[in-house]
Write a structure and sequence with these properties.
By secondary structure, this protein is α+β, with helices and mostly antiparallel strands. The chain contains two helices and five strands.
Length: 101
């Protein structure tokens, strides 16, 4: 029975993993403008995208977000944990390329 007590998680750990993570957003359009954001794993991606756009004084519609080679729509309502993001991950942000004139 003592084995069951030793298997309990640390007080700060949630049963499914950490409840908060820090993500880095790297602005590929400018040099050295990385933004680190600490958030809950249940935070929807749209909130993270809006935070970046606001802090960079840019429109959300003119940005493209990439994570591990996949494009993520800035209007995504999916929680960051469901996108596979973990503590310390980097999201690359670039301006949307407009074709035509």
């Amino acid at each position: 029975m003592s084995d069951m007590k030793s298997a309990s998680p640390a007080p700060s750990a949630a049963p499914g993993g950490p409840t908060q993570i820090t993500l880095k957003l790297r602005d590929l359009d400018s040099e050295g403008d990385d933004l680190e954001v600490r958030m809950r794993t249940s935070t929807k991606f749209i909130r993270l995208a809006r935070t970046f756009a606001t802090r960079q004084n840019r429109e959300l519609s003119e940005l493209r977000f990439m994570f591990k080679g996949r494009r993520i729509l800035p209007t995504s309502e999916v929680p960051v944990a469901d996108l596979g993001m973990v503590d310390g991950d980097t999201i690359e942000v670039s301006p949307k390329v407009m074709i035509g004139g």
